[in-house]
Amino acid sequence: MHLLPDAAQPQLLAEVLLREREPADAALVALYPAIRRRHTSRYPFADKEIPEAVRAALSEAARLEGARLDFPGAWHAQSLLELVGDAEGRDTLDPRNAEDLNRWSRIGTAEADTATDGVPDYAFGPRKWYGGAPVRDFAGRRPVADRATMTFENTPHLALLSTAGDGTEDWLRAGQALERVLLLATAHDLATSLTSHALEWPDLRWLARDPRSATGCVQMVLRLGYGPQGPATPRRPVREVLDVE
Ligand SMILES: Cc1cc2nc3c(=O)[nH]c(=O)nc-3n(C[C@H](O)[C@H](O)[C@H](O)COP(=O)(O)O)c2cc1C
């Protein structure tokens, strides 16, 4: 696979050559069944520790894709939650955020059931009554029929995915590492959700960095835990994103 194979076509992100005889990477083959099971879960997770061996395997998965995954200690996790809180506060004052939510969320059966992209209301999860888990509420202030309200975990298990640089190729590697980590987490019966909230503000993103790898650029904050998987959500047609020759 070649990332960004043609400088004249920046929208061509990767070129993949399939060769039947090439020996398959057993670690990747083992992740295949998790593809259909993995869905973002915006539900509460149990207050249960993630075994150290699983955390180490997830970090190794990120490393194999050229990124790193760090599990922040207590104070760093708390500071990340505060950064997400700051971002949420800024968002409520920024009309561009409401526009963004409108553009990417699909509310009501007519819209949610026919969507080919975006986040449909059946994937919003319950409204948060209480708890520190950073779960973005895609409804904003809009009502959603039959939506439950629940208490979320207070001390969520967070992980930071970062790359050494911050160019287009780093973003692609971050995406590959994210997918590999999410699939491995699913294979270990973990549920996952993402929060890019704090990373959307350059000053907050800078503060989110792992102090032990201070040169890293944070690309995603993951929330992992034991809980229900979310529902499957729509995808754009494959022909819109992939040319097969
Ligand atoms: C770059 C990026 C940022 C995301 N940020 C958030 C986020 O802040 N909050 C959230 O709930 N989901 C976030 N997501 C998850 C997407 O909403 C989710 O992957 C998408 O709706 C598809 O659903 P699925 O993961 O169940 O397949 C993000 C995904 C990507 C790729």
TrEMBL record:
Listed InterPro entries: Nitroreductase, Nitroreductase-like, Nitroreductase/BluB
SUPFAM superfamilies: FMN-dependent nitroreductase-like
Domain Nitroreductase as annotated: residue spans: 35-196
Domain of life of the organism encoding this protein: Bacteria
Gene3D superfamilies, per database record: NADH Oxidase
PANTHER family reported in the protein's UniProt record: NAD(P)H NITROREDUCTASE RV3131-RELATED (PTHR23026:SF123), NADPH NITROREDUCTASE (PTHR23026)
Record's protein name: Nitroreductase domain-containing protein
Organism this protein belongs to: Streptomyces olivaceiscleroticus
